[in-house]
């Protein structure tokens, strides 16, 4: 069953941005991209000319494939960098909190803790790392061999 959606040019432009970001999130780290997502991306990009968004999409006529233009990639790079920056610090804080939590509590202790108690403990540790990273970035991080 095929459905039809109606979009204004501005809505379509925003859809292009979302498709770019979604495709980037799901495929940029893969050697073999997810074909189904490539196909949806190509379909959405194929309407760029109809919506007056030629500058956002390039076409490879030989393969009948559409790709984000340099302009679209450059525009979306800001969002990707913000996401990467946030994710880096958030993941680092949570990984360190998990490590510190496991050092502080042995498995027997965690078995009697509620999920809320565990989250409260980890949140407190994470908050300390967030504060440290906000103040000093990675300046105070040191790797040591045990």
Summarize the structure.
This protein is mainly alpha-helical and 146 residues long. It has helices spanning 9-27, 35-45, 70-104, 107-111, 115-136, and strands spanning 57-60, 65-68.
Main features:
single chain, 63% helix
List the helices and strands and how they pair.
Elements: H1 9-27, H2 35-45, E1 57-60, E2 65-68, H3 70-104, H4 107-111, H5 115-136
Antiparallel strand pairs: 1-2
Report on the architecture of this protein:
By secondary structure, this protein is mainly alpha-helical. The chain has 2 domains: 9-68, no CATH class; 81-136, no CATH class. Helix content is 63%, strand content 5%. It contains 5 helices and 2 strands, in the order ααββααα. The chain has helices at residues 9-27, 35-45, 70-104, 107-111, 115-136; strands at 57-60, 65-68. Strands 1-2 form a two-stranded antiparallel ribbon. Helix 1 (9-27) runs antiparallel to helix 2 and helix 3 (70-104) packs across helix 5 (115-136).
Strand order of the largest sheet: 1-2
Biggest sheet features: 2 strands, antiparallel
Q: What's the gyration radius in Å?
A: 22 Å
How many domains, in number, for the residues?
Answer: 2
Mean pLDDT: 95
Number of strands: 2
Helical coverage, percent range = 55-70%
Alpha-carbon distance between the termini?
Answer: 61 Å
What structural class results from the helix and strand content? mainly alpha
Uncertain spans: none
- Overall body shape: elongated
- Beta-strand proportion: 5-15%
Helix run count: 5
């Amino acid at each position: 069953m095929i459905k039809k959606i109606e979009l204004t040019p501005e809505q379509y432009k925003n859809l292009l941005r979302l498709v770019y970001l979604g495709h980037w999130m799901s495929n940029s780290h893969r050697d073999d991209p997810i074909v189904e997502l490539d196909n949806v991306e190509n379909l959405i990009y194929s309407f760029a000319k109809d919506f007056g968004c030629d500058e956002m999409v390039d076409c490879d006529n030989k393969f009948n494939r559409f790709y984000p233009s340099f302009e679209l990639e450059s525009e979306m790079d800001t969002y990707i960098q913000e996401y990467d920056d946030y994710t880096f610090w958030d993941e680092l804080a949570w990984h360190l909190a998990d490590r510190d939590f496991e050092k502080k509590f042995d498995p027997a202790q965690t078995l009697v803790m509620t999920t809320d108690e565990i989250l409260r403990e980890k949140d407190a540790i994470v908050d300390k790392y967030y504060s440290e990273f906000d103040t000093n970035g990675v300046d105070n991080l040191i790797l040591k061999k045990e």
